[in-house]
Design brief:
The chain starts with 10 loop residues before the first helix and ends in a 7-residue tail after the last helix. It has a domain of 53 residues. By secondary structure, it is an alpha+beta fold. Strands 1-2-3-4 form a four-stranded antiparallel sheet. The longest helix is centred in the C-terminal third of the chain and has 12 residues. A hairpin with a 2-residue loop joins strand 2 and strand 3. The chain has two helices and four strands. Helices cover 24% and strands 24% of the residues.
Length: 76
């Protein structure tokens, strides 16, 4: 039995989302903001909130955060 994945957030949902940043940002405007979008999460640059955010499934966001909280680094 196949089920359809959850619908991706629409533009108005992104606009009305409650974006928040880490308390560790120290009030500077140079961090990443995250919004809970139900089955998804949005990430955006606090310096450019009008640009399209990155939309991730909640599990992908969890994997990303686990990667960095485990002390691993990104190699580009």
């Amino acid at each position: 039995m196949s089920t359809n994945p959850p619908r991706r957030p629409r533009a108005e949902e992104l606009h009305n989302a409650q974006w928040r940043r880490s308390s560790y940002s120290g009030g500077a405007n140079d961090c990443v903001e995250i919004a809970d979008l139900g089955a998804y999460a949005g990430m955006r640059d606090s310096k450019a909130p009008d640009l399209s955010p990155v939309i991730l499934s909640r599990s992908a966001l969890g994997d990303l955060l686990d990667h960095y909280t485990d002390g691993e680094t990104c190699v580009g």
